[in-house]
């Protein structure tokens, strides 16, 4: 896969002394034989799940805009980072696109690398998890995986047609069919963006959820401790970040802006706990919608969240 260098362009500090490398300067074409220990960026260009869920469309353009925002960010050392290209949802063939994404994620995992997938609507989550299921197979019965979702919405709709509102219900059914446990934590849930039926379904599935109104900065030490205890109970983590977990003024360019949301510093700190655990196996980011972004702010926020994942920073 050859990198599209038109989206990976940025500043070059020619003539400066010291370490001046930026992400676009260290990025490589994906090569499975060299990927072990590195990170592989994949794009999932899809609006179909959002369309089916009656949301405002535009997230299909998110992956390349996030790449542009990442390109000029400075890096420490020379991290091993690859771009594995985009998976595009053509027409309305969402399920086919999710299957392709799943195979790509499984291939990256088999190569010993960390897949970091850029969306796209939150239908990305089911595609990403198909890759996890393909790679780990029956091991998920004895090596439980925590599905950690930063999101204002449960996305647990039990509907016959897949959408951006159904991925975690679909994952629960996939795991039930394999007799594997469903460990799902949704952090940043808005009581005003989910029906009573969705809260009841979350309770029935033993979902651990934290309301946005409780995730305040002064409670961060307590929340970090709670998350560390949860991570200690599992073997692997799948991290998925829906940009609408953030306050609308911090992330206006999303499919469904949040009236309250969770502060960026809180989200960053909790993601840091996951990184340091050593259990992160795959990550994705969803619902960035460039159509409604203001001054590229949401893209820069997304890039800030993605950068330590892509560059494999533990600190």
UniProtKB/TrEMBL annotation:
> Pathway membership of this protein?
Amino-acid degradation; L-histidine degradation into L-glutamate; L-glutamate from N-formimidoyl-L-glutamate (hydrolase route): step 1/1
Give the function comment from the record. Answer: Catalyzes the conversion of N-formimidoyl-L-glutamate to L-glutamate and formamide.
Q: What is this protein called?
A: Formimidoylglutamase
Q: What is its EC number?
A: 3.5.3.8
- What keywords appear on the UniProt entry? Histidine metabolism, Hydrolase, Manganese, Metal-binding
Question: What binding details are noted for the cofactor?
Answer: Binds 2 manganese ions per subunit.
- InterPro entries on file: HutG (IPR005923), Ureohydrolase (IPR006035), Ureohydrolase_dom_sf (IPR023696)
Keyword hit for Hydrolase: yes
Sequence similarity:
Belongs to the arginase family.
Annotated Mn(2+) 2 binding sites = 151, 153, 242, 244
Please tell me where Mn(2+) 1 binds in this chain: 122, 151, 153, 155, 242, 244
Q: Example GO biological process term? A: L-histidine catabolic process to glutamate and formamide
Which co-factor is required?
Mn(2+)
